[in-house]
Amino acid sequence: MKITLTKPDDWHLHLRDDEAMASVVGHTAERFARAIVMPNLKPPVANTQLSAEYRQRILSALPENSGFTPLMTLYMTDRLTSEEVIRAKQSGFVHGIKLYPAGATTNSDAGVTDIRKLYPVLETMQRESMPLLVHAEVTDPEIDIFDRERVFIDRYMAMLRADFPELSIVFEHVTTRDAVDFVRESNGPNGATITVQHLMFNRNHMLAGGIRPHYYCLPILKRETHQEALIKAATSGNPRFFLGTDSAPHPQHAKECACGCAGCYTAHAAIELYAEIFEAENALDKLEGFASHHGPDFYGMPRNTEQITLQKRDWQVADSYRFGNDRVVPLKAGQTVHWQLINE
Ligand code: NCD
Ligand code: ZN
User: How far apart (Å, rounded) are the C-alpha atoms in residues 219 and 252?
Assistant: First the structure.
């Protein structure tokens, strides 16, 4: 069996930098025409100038004739200004501004400490049609890690939605039923990305019978009822939900250690794994909308014109891939994937 789709885009991706980036960017460029590239480098990509330089480094690292277009984002810090938002918009290559609550995840120490102080900037974003991309987790140490997304909705997301009714807001990597309901039901231009790992796994896969560091990402995998809500949302055909892998490579030694860092590497087999999920739901006919149509429609960009073909054929994922001077262990390392990307 084969399926042909409009070439998909990845609306949430970590490419890293330098040699590490050069080792992984080809995986994404083979499968996706464009990707929203996250700005959480060290130091963060916090202005248009840094973003232009990062974009150039990505373009230079791409394989010949890949045709891949990186869609850049800025990292919102407490110091972001309205002038910078306007500069970003005018650049034509910055497509969103990412809000990380300070300390929420990998390289987020430069994140926002009080969103209310950024209201003038958010006003400008709304006026300039610059989407706000949100890592929606509170960082309050009092709040249980499994509740951090739900509490963020109550404390901030509902407020942002009400105060900026015309601002395009992407609820990044939704992981709970609460988030799905919020995105579906609240008024305004709402979008949400959904990762492969949150569709395939729940916290039992990560924790029962042994701890699996390569399933550890943020927001953390939740219980099965939430996983079911995500699968339903992704396969529903609702245009508010679209593909964003959050593929986030880390060196093997930084994941397999006493305090492993967050992030799953999925770029090596992303669209193939989404196809597995949609097939299991008898929803392969909904894959193209989720992977190739809803994202560009939300961001106001043209849909891709090229196509890709996937064939139902088993292949085995490598145990690890080169990652600069290190190795990265991919999701499903050494295991079988049932769909394969083929060149026709
Ligand atoms: C991401 C990373 O490693 O950069 N990690 C993750 O677990 N998703 C950061 C992020 O998107 O939260
Ligand atoms: Zn991410």
Answer: 20
Q: Classify strands 169-171 and 190-194 as parallel, antiparallel or unpaired.
A: parallel
List 246, 285, 297, 319, catalytic entry: 246
* pTM exceeds 0.85, yes or no: yes
Atom of ligand 1 lying closest to residue 217 CA: 7
49-75 burial: b if 16+ Cβ within 10 Å, else e = ebbeebbeebeebbeeeeebbbbbbbb
244 within 8 A of 195, measured Cβ to Cβ = yes
Report CA-CA distances (Å) from 55 to 24, 40, 60, 78, 84: 15, 14, 9, 23, 17
- The alpha carbon of 40 and the centre of ligand 1 are apart by a number of angstroms equal to 9
Contacts of 69 (CB under 8 A, 6+ apart): 33, 34
Is pLDDT above 80 for 106? no
Task: Give residue 296's identity as a one-letter amino acid code.
Answer: P
Compute, in angstroms, the gap from residue 100 CA to the centroid of ligand 2: 10
Q: Distance between CA atoms of 157 and 134, rounded to whole angstroms?
A: 9
pLDDT band at 343 (very low <50, low <70, confident <90, very high): confident
CA 208 to chain centre: 26
Kindly identify the ligand whose nearest atom is closest to the C-alpha of 38: 2
CA-nearest of 220, 185, 187, 192 to 206 is: 220
Residue 163 annotated among the catalytic residues of the structure: no
Considering only CA atoms, which of 105, 24, 15 is closest in space to residue 328? Answer: 24
Task: Enumerate residues lining ligand 1, CB below 6 A.
Answer: 14, 40, 105-106, 135, 217-218, 246, 248, 262-263
